[in-house]
Amino acid sequence: MPSPENAADAGLFDAVVNLCKRRGFVFPSAEIYGGIRSTYDYGPLGALLLRNVRDAWWRSMVQQRDDVLPIDAAILTNPKVWEASGHLATFTDPLVDCRSCKERSRADHLEQKDGRPICPHCGSTDLTEARPFNLMFKTFVGPVEDDAAVAYLRPETAQGMFVNFSNVLTSMRRRPPFGIAQIGRSFRNEITPGNFVFRTREFEQMELEFFVPPADSQRWHRYWCDERLAWYQRWGIPSDQLRLRPHDQEELSHYSAGTSDVEFRFPWGWGELEGIANRTDYDLKAHAAASGERLEYFDQATGERYVPHVIEPAAGATRTMMAFLLSAYHEDEVGGEPRTVLRLHPRLAPYQVAVLPLSKKETLAPLARQVAATLRSQLMCDFDDTQSIGRRYRRQDEIGTPYCVTVDFDSLDDNAVTVRDRDTTAQERLPIDALPGELARRLAAS
Ligand code: ATP
What we know:
This protein is an alpha+beta fold. The protein is 30% helix and 28% strand.
């Protein structure tokens, strides 16, 4: 497993992992039973953040476009899908055994000593030859565990779009260029999961298959590379922590006429957030040959018939969530006091607002609760009336809440509250009536 490049990077990684556990973003799965390696449960704040990551993708990839349609395909499907797609034969990673400590590792991730790969567990160079290990999880459908009942958990969401190409084309009366998008869980029996939620065996993907006339495929590939890189910037990752890296010829998958990865500068170095591949007509042709169905576009008016080419921007929601957390994490000083602040994009933050009554006294509680209830009809709103106001601000800063609303004793007379901005810590008095509209305006403009 790659290790962080320097102490500052290692410190950032540990600080974010620690914050995730302490503040309810990510927990080791089934921790009371000792967990299960590299498997995580998303806690209250993680579930909210992940949902906001999905929503941000969905808004720009589905809602704001007139050429992309969503689907939600089954995780368990006919195993013929995986035969035709090539996953059964080739969805493998090279596996080596260490003869010394018996641990297994992914051969292409090993560091070298004197030109020989070394075991990351014990440092031995006495390793077996690499052999292919299929990453798909196998299971059985129905009560009989025989070969006829074998099925696989999907290792990517993409094939759900290919096998539904004709259904969507016909039922929704589309013509290329158009896309089919989906967000969902995928499963890979990774040999060496790790680096927190960067590589897990169960994860979430956000994928688009964009079907285009063959002659236009390169243009659309460039379009989607630009579009996707801009999406990460738009949602708050600084440009110097992102890059678009084209694959060289040896690295290209067998189906690809060109792939570029959006990469993020993780604490251990550059790592992929999303692959944008020009998959040509490989998948539709493979499924057409295996199923005997015609998977093509036919234009009745012109008599034109062709198999569309496919541009695939394939992103990981859970991995992207980690990148958002790492780039948002900052330690600074406010009024001479150190603070931790997550400078998440306001609409990605788990809570957009927190209502904090200045005192726990019963006189303030009804108004504060009423303000929170009003805000909750539009936003995720936290409520906290414990400890000093300074500590409560720090707690909200640490989870990235962009606005804190303080209800104080003057509020009872002037019907106004103080709104504090997470990043500038500037405070401003606003009439309660204007609050929902003003917060909505600021969030929409963010
Ligand atoms: P890698 O080279 O990191 O194994 P990949 O090239 O196999 O990734 P793709 O098949 O292109 O990944 O999947 C698209 C996206 O899904 C990746 O860019 C990543 O964000 C996410 N993803 C893939 N595998 C995992 C995993 N094991 N854990 C978390 N996210 C993953």
